[in-house]
Amino acid sequence: MAYELFYWPDIQGRGEFVRLALEEAGAEYVDVARSGGLGAMMALMEGEGVERPPFAPPFLRDGDVLVGQTAAILFYLGPRLGLAPSGEEGRLWTHQIQLTIADLVAETHDTHHPISGGLYYEDQKPEAARRAKDFRRERIPRFLGWFETVLARNPAGSGYLVGAGLTYADLSLFQVVEGLTYAFPRAAKRAMRHTPRVAALHARVAERPRIRAYLDSGRRLPFSEEGIFRRYPELDG
Amino acid sequence: MAYELFYWPDIQGRGEFVRLALEEAGAEYVDVARSGGLGAMMALMEGEGVERPPFAPPFLRDGDVLVGQTAAILFYLGPRLGLAPSGEEGRLWTHQIQLTIADLVAETHDTHHPISGGLYYEDQKPEAARRAKDFRRERIPRFLGWFETVLARNPAGSGYLVGAGLTYADLSLFQVVEGLTYAFPRAAKRAMRHTPRVAALHARVAERPRIRAYLDSGRRLPFSEEGIFRRYPELDG
């Protein structure tokens, strides 16, 4: 049976980290809200009969199993899609990297919404300018530097984050680099000069046949100023 | 062999979620940085020979295994301490709840640091006032309301979040209620009027003998204006 992914239909957002894993694996899946199922998605969050309601999208349904939280979805899917190491320790390490990516994604979101996700960017521009400056100067280099270290110290020397082969964390790091490069073209380029392994991983993932086909397809939504990675030139310094 | 917990020695912070699980289980553990091992902690983060360096504290060492990210540490410890359900689905659901608690903790931190964790609160007070207002009005009720729903829909009707018995997620929700009540006494009290199950769980956890003994011991650090949950009366509205 096909996996059912539930996420907002008009943005990449956090759902994109799950889409990339499903696409790379060639898995059969339905992007429910994009297939006319926005009502079904809302019912799973707000319906009174749902025993384990997700707090927010994305979430995944696999038969009877309903899983929310991006990193938990990928932890669940990883072994099933062949995108996680075998042993517990390797899977936990991959998950730990994914959770650090999730922290970076949340911080990226808050560069344009430092006060409230319920207000428009236009209602929090001065605060966004201050937060984005710190994000560019301190946080992007710190996070990308950590990923660079992880790549450098992988004893398999594979150029991937964990072990000898591709995992979902590599796909997610690809997406983060895509997103930061869209949102902060100048700051991201500056930071990446110091993280050649991160840049190489990004280029390598982009050339994987199924990822390439996905990126070129209509299934890949464009970045936009409705998502997590937004291009507001004034925030790029 | 004793578990080794690595966390900043002077605050509850994110380390406290791990401490509560270890204490409830009566596990043997060393709080390394509080036992004079701050240098050892820094070496694990910054030493060049560490194959899987944690991005930030807390992290846990169990023999050869080194795990970072609070929720991942608890996912690892849960089954070992008897604080997680058996079966994959129950463990994943417990983890999903924990990740939502982690989101709430990060948002709480940002009420006093909406611009940068590298600046003092005093350098971001106007922004903090705006963010805290939204947090009190929108976010505390939303998160606590979700936990209330999870408690209400647990088919075991146990008063715990998952299944018939206590899990680490219950301990973490206890800590969140403690922290919100410290930091936002008025807003937390207001919100808890609508979440009687959350309030009851908090009271019940506080009466568990090992938790009670821990809270009364010198091992429990006090809340302070250095941690995540800070009492700045002007942020409580």
Helix content of chain A: 40-55%
Which percent range describes the beta-strand content of chain A?
5-15%
How many helices of chain A does DSSP assign?
A: 9
CATH class term of the largest domain in chain A: Mainly Alpha
Mean pLDDT of chain A: 97
What can be said about the biggest beta sheet of chain A?
Answer: 4 strands, mixed
The helix/strand series of chain A, from N terminus to C terminus, equals EHEHEEHHHHHHH
Count of folded domains of chain A: 2
From the helix content, strand content and strand pairing of chain A, which structural class follows?
Answer: alpha+beta
- Radius of gyration of chain A, CA atoms, in whole angstroms: 18 Å
User: How many β strands of chain A by DSSP?
Assistant: 4
CATH T-level fold name of the largest domain in chain A: Glutathione S-transferase Yfyf (Class Pi), Chain A, domain 2
Distance between the termini of chain A: 48 Å
Quaternary assembly: homodimer
Biggest interface goes to: A-B, 41 and 41 residues
Shape of chain A: globular
